[in-house]
Amino acid sequence: MTLAATAPVHADVREFLGRNRQLLIDGEWVDSASGRTFPTYDPATGEKLTEVAHGQAEDVHRAVAAARRAFEDGPWARMKPNQREQLIWRVGDLLTAKAEIFGQLEALDNGKSAGIAQVVDTGWAADVFRYYAGWSTKIEGSTVDVSMPFAPEGSQFHAYTLREPVGVCGQIVPWNFPLLMTAWKIAPAIAAGNTVVLKPAEQTPLTALLLGELFEEAGFPPGVVNIVTGYGDAGAAIAAHDDVDKVAFTGSTEVGKLIVDAARGNLKKVSLELGGKSPNVVFADADLDIAVPGSLNAWLFNHGQCCVAGTRLYVEDTIFEEFTHAVADAASQVKIGPGLDPSTQLGPMVSQEQFDRVSRYLSEGIADGARALTGGKRWGDEGYFIEPTVFVDCKPESSIVREEIFGPVVAALPFSAEHGVAAVANDSEYGLAAGIWTRDISKAHRTARQLKAGSVWINQYNGFDTAMPFGGFKQSGWGRELGAEAIGLYTQTKSVNVAL
Ligand code: TXE
User: Fold this and answer.
1) What ipTM was assigned to the predicted interfaces of this complex?
2) pLDDT in tens, 199-256
3) pLDDT tens across 298-349, in order?
4) Geometric angle at alpha carbon 390, from 387 and 394, rounded to 5°
5) pLDDT band with cut points at 50, 70 and 90 for residue 1
6) What is the whole-number distance in angstroms between the Cα of residue 359 and the centre of ligand 1?
């Protein structure tokens, strides 16, 4: 299957793929300093889509210098909040207007369904820009009625706080939601008056670059948003750069720890959204008509390449057989195919590397004695497709139960009593998300309080909203993105005290 043979590709997508893509630095599209490029591929076919500029440390340095100028001296620094609001809102509107183009480009670069990429990834990215556009005019300090115990009797003071931008923000995003993670990072940062240098994942750089064109079209001053495509070394250069004031990262826990080490030099602020191995707890009194499809969505959405994926499925023992077979049955009916086929529900893994990684976990699970009720192997003989896989007979210590697989694989385990389930659900180094299914509202809230997770969903899964903070307990991260808390990540408080 070639690009030409798939469903109709929008003329603008073809045009975008028709030339090598460059870096966005200081409002200009430029080649990398080395002149080198790297390829990006369609994971449904393994076919090359286009070449992208290979940014490295020198390019990061140029981008940081541009972001610094824009922050200190550019019009951005003097712009009124409502002017920032209008520019950011315009990006949301442009995304909505071009949602079909973004959806197709994301489908080609990442493998996900074009329809989902249009509605969920692009639609939500537009919502994120509009939500944070509104925040531009709502960032407030406070006045404080100070006592000043050591001041002379009768003296008076006017004390207040200002919330100011942090400065130049380095942002490093992964490949599972390339456009959406870019929006989550850039929108709150610029709403708060910062400037950014963003590095997309090497597997999926294209939609971030197309988004870069929208900042130009919306009328942003040069240097406010800079985009440097490249590999991990470019990310490392951002994390270590002495003129970057903050680094925000979404990706593996392993690299998250490297970011923390790299940030030590100038003690830049760090926020991290890392891996997960989230428990999804199904009690016997759950409404199975919603719990079965909901639990399927919990681990299969985005082909399992979701940090929140509910990949440890704990089912109360009295319904374990019935429930796991129902989930396996539903999984076996999922339509697998390329993202550009409108009937596709499950696309390929993003890369050969990710395909190999998931395949290794399938072998390890079977070697550890687990049994696949459905799936357990590659699908087809082209592209990086894996069958949805439901494992039972899983040992709690085996790698399929403990480690993040990041593929369409769930490990189901039975539990026998409400009071014990939180302990097994919390038995993980991660704490990103959790699901609970029950008709008993008290049991649901009791369990929600016991689970060590940044997001808990009751009788639903993947229930995100731009206004709800998102992030992890334990090794799933530092800080919270989305909602008002993201404005906290991108501002710092200054205390001002005036003797009257
Ligand atoms: O992630 P990396 P990978 C998990 C998931 C997946 C595994 C590996 O389990 O199977 O991580 O994926 C940049 N300094 N998640 O290898 O390497 C890299 O270029 C600075 C969970 O793709 O963490 C990319 O832009 N940056 C996750 C980004 O980090 C570095 C999403 C993420 O890549 C760097 C993705 C370095 N030293 C994977 N090395 C989630 N939380 O949603 C690499 N990068």
Assistant:
1) 0.98
2) 999 999 999 999 999 999 999 999 999 999 999 999 999 999 999 999 999 999 999 9
3) 999 999 999 999 999 999 999 999 999 999 999 999 999 999 999 999 999 9
4) 135
5) very low
6) 18
> Could you give the residue numbers annotated as active site?
273
User: What is the C-alpha to C-alpha distance for residues 298 and 310, in angstroms, rounded to an integer?
Assistant: 5
Task: For residue 405, give the ligand 1 atom closest to its CA.
Answer: 9
**DSSP-assigned states of every residue in 313-376:** EEEEGGGHHHHHHHHHHHHHTPPB--TTSTT-SB---SSHHHHHHHHHHHHHHHHTT-EEEE--
Residue whose CA is at the smallest distance from ligand 1 atom 30: 232
The ligand 1 atom nearest the CA atom of 357: 10
User: How far is it, in rounded angstroms, from Cα 479 to Cα 466?
Assistant: 15
pTM to 2 decimal places: 0.97
The Cα-based distances of 431 to 266, 319, 326, 410 in angstroms read 29, 26, 27, 17
Rounded-to-integer distance, Cα 407 and Cα 171, Å = 25
Phi and psi at residue 197, in whole multiples of 5°? Answer: -125, 115
Q: Token digits for 488?
A: 């906290």
Give 32 Cα–ligand 1 centroid separation in angstroms: 22
Measure 256 CA to ligand 1 centroid, in angstroms.
8
Q: Is 176 in the pocket of ligand 1 (CB under 6 A)?
A: yes
Domains of the chain: 11-274+477-497 (3.40.605.10), 279-458 (3.40.309.10)
Tokens of 296: 């399927």
Residue pair 208/132 in contact (Cβ under 8 Å)? The answer is: no
Q: Could you tell me the two tokens for 173?
A: 């995003």
Atom 28 in ligand 1: residue holding the nearest Cα: 174
> Residue holding tokens 């003071």?
157
Question: What type of residue sits at position 396?
Answer: P
Among 52, 172, 351, residue to substitute to test ligand 1 (most atoms within 8 Å of Cβ): 172
Rounded distance from Cα 303 to ligand 1 centre (Å): 17
Mean pLDDT of the chain: 97
- Comparing C-alpha atoms, which of 327, 461, 308 is closest to residue 392? 327
